[in-house]
Design brief:
Chains A, B: Keywords: FAD, Flavoprotein, Oxidoreductase. 2 copies of one chain form a homodimer. By secondary structure, chain A is α+β, with helices and mostly antiparallel strands. Chain A contains 16 helices and 18 strands.
Chain lengths: 460, 460
């Protein structure tokens, strides 16, 4: 248990200004962007790896839970301290330690915000591709711990693809380094990959070597309407197997189209069964050729194809996609968009089937469900809005979300393609992973025998 | 210990034709393509996952070592049974279980040979990119267990990038499934990534879900000479940071150029300080543009640039690269190319420095060292030839290799970029990984408490 002596001891490590046990402060650290809540007993803002190590060593000795937090933009309760204890707010460790473009990499601290990193890289002609919806706020540490991705992962992969190495504080306070500045190594188990996506349950990331890419010179977007999501799904499979890899491939269903048109009638999206948005980036020739090939591939399937002729039109089309979250939330002032059951992924060819199932679930529970998402990698976001003061509405929502999760698993998919397990989805771990969950638990027990790191998450 | 009763019991599982304890047979399984040797007591050729599980369960009960083997093309002793026991020859489990191109994936058994898989994929327009020198023989299971790569990894990544999921038999015989047919999932620790590159020390791969890519429509090669490896290194950094990602980027040093010209004078390679070979693939426009940009980028640095004008010339240039192994081995009939210290990797910008160091080591030990490799990802292969009957020569070679390994680590590199640790490089694990090796050992002990899986490898 945390007592005054321990708090004083920790205060000596980080300085009195960098920790707080005041209720108003603790309350700020009791949630993320989901509805999950849990109060910490102490919030600490470490500034160095050695401070993190010293704090964790004390926590380990006394069996105090340690939950690590970046910007708190997660949607699964991942950084919510369910069992109290310490929250480590990593936002103070936000430096770019090294810009090493000759090696196509940068070394960063975990608290740096995605957009800030990209702004710092831009003058040098480089970028860090993973771009979740929260990129203006989310931290690199959070992205790594959750293996975040977003719209560009169909071409550029998830955060995992960019992590060359990590500095990690283990449960007993030991500092290790995984990976290296080398682009390719097969020395040892990939501890880097084990840490990526482990949501703070195996160690605390205090530094990362991140691969960067040259900013593509051009990009263009294309916008194709289809009579049904099934036909849109077919078009996606055809495009991806043609060898063209778009930098984004998004779907909007009929409900989302209506929502966007209600939100901003000027956009005037065609009232199709589904719309696909493709973005192609690269050199001028690549973009021209890519867009041309997608148009050709969609012909005969799509009822209407529009290519953005200039930057203005491109921005307008893309703005429509970015509006989705807002459009859903503003459909009905009495209802709030709730992120539950919102992140399933399925094998690409199962997308039309999953979309049909979501529609059935929507009708069964008499709950409007709007679907959009990264169809290029099978990731569907289902948007549901409820009156948050109604117990009845919550019950219905949870039942619908449960059915969405079980359906995704049944057809070979996953309950979370990018938002994380946290505590929101830990109950589905056994169903999706089977006895592989036991292997996870064995690893967790071996590396964190006292279970102090982010307890209550990921089903371990 | 293996006794007659146990052998009989195992015989009932796999059938008498699929196991052998005959010395001549055991001898065939006592080596890989390195100089490392170790005799097994029993060789078993399982045909199903359940057979593997049943065998491992017996081995676990009796504490018998189990070493898994694909085609035995490894260069680190990885599949050599150093502590006797059982060798599991997986070459009988070689089916393509499912071709699922709508999901851009195939499901395979581990014994399938890389080239055979690619021949089966070709008519459908797909391929599996990782292509080590041994692709005509090596198995997918071996590639996965070693995270194999080769010339194309600069663009296409290593085997890791293609493994969506695995079926694995754990040390106690339990069968687990990791990953899924979904392109993107963040459910749980990435056990798939933990298994990839674990060289059979954590589990036995019995099935894999493999992502495939569309075969690029065109490819072209370019061949640039430089006065020194340093300048060649600069050109590589410039090309990679320009946004063009070649599908191969290889270096040949002056010694290798001479070796190839001696082997096949018709090729007439220019006697430069170093030659870079670039391959660009993609659509016609991409290839044309890529080659053009590389030419432009190399101008002012390269003393001579040749672009292959047609397929014949392209094949000739590429053949020169493929000749390297043979050229080294045939320089002197009294000497044999030995694969020791042959696989270091360094951060890209350190390549010129590493090349200089190798040159110094060559002069210090009076041992000709020829260097070539995948400069695009910092992977250098150092070729040394010795009189294998001379103890003196072996001593010199091992001392030189030791210095090469230590130098690579000193400048932020790795002792093995793609060939694996096995037993050949396990002594360097502590030096390269520091206390991260303890984390590896903790995981190994947790998942294989009796240490029966491929003992004596990877320093665990």
């Amino acid at each position: 248990m945390l007592n005054v002596d321990l708090i004083e001891k920790i205060g000596k490590i980080v300085g009195k200004d960098n920790l707080s046990a005041a209720t108003c402060e603790l309350y700020c650290y009791s949630s993320d962007a989901s509805q999950i809540r849990g109060m910490p007993e102490l919030v600490i803002k470490p500034l160095t790896t050695v401070q993190v190590s010293d704090i964790v060593r004390i926590a380990y000795e006394h069996g105090i839970p340690v939950t690590t937090r970046g910007a708190g933009t997660g949607l699964s309760g991942g950084c919510v301290p369910l069992e109290g204890g310490i929250v480590l707010d990593m936002s103070g460790m936000n430096r770019i330690v090294e810009m090493d473009f000759d090696n196509l990499q940068v070394v960063v601290e975990p608290g740096i915000v995605q957009e800030k990193l990209n702004k710092a890289l831009e003058p040098y002609g480089f970028f860090f591709p993973p771009d979740p919806g929260s990129s203006a706020m989310c931290t690199l540490g959070g992205l790594i711990a959750n293996n975040g991705s977003g719209m560009r992962s169909v071409k550029y992969g998830t955060t995992r693809s960019y992590v060359l190495g990590l500095e990690v504080v283990m449960a007993d306070g030991k500092i290790i380094r995984t990976g290296s500045k080398t682009m390719k190594t097969v020395v040892g188990y990939s501890l880097t990959d084990l840490m990526v996506g482990s949501e703070g349950t195996l160690g605390i990331i205090t530094q990362a070597i991140i691969k960067v890419r040259a900013i593509p010179k051009e990009s263009s977007v294309l916008f194709a309407s289809f009579d049904s999501p099934e036909i849109a799904g077919k078009a996606v499979v055809r495009v991806l197997s043609s060898g063209i890899i778009p930098s984004a491939c998004e779907i909007l269903d009929a409900n989302i189209i209506r929502a966007i048109n209600t939100y901003d009638p000027k956009l005037g999206l065609p009232l199709a069964g589904a719309i696909l948005l493709f973005e192609v980036d690269g050199t001028e020739a690549e973009v021209k050729e890519g867009i041309g090939l997608i148009v050709k591939t969609c012909e005969g399937l799509s009822s209407d194809i529009r290519t953005a002729s200039d930057k203005k039109e491109r921005d307008e089309i893309w703005a429509a996609r970015r509006l989705v979250g807002a459009a859903i939330s503003r459909l009905d002032p009495m209802r709030t968009r709730v992120y539950v059951g919102e992140d399933v992924g399925v094998p690409i060819k199962e997308i039309p089937r999953m979309l049909r199932k979501v529609d059935e679930i929507s009708r069964e529970f008499k709950l409007p469900i709007m679907t959009y998402g990264h169809i290029g990698d099978g990731n569907l976001h289902t948007g549901m809005c409820i009156d948050m003061l109604s117990d009845e509405a919550w019950k219905k929502l949870n039942a619908a979300a449960d059915k969405i999760h079980r359906t995704a698993i049944e057809i070979g998919g996953t309950v979370t393609a990018e938002h994380g397990v946290g505590s929101a989805r830990s109950e589905y771990m056994r169903l999706e992973l089977g006895n592989a969950l036991d292997v996870m638990i064995t690893i967790k027990k071996a590396l964190d025998p006292k279970g102090i790191l982010n307890p209550g998450k990921m089903g371990v």
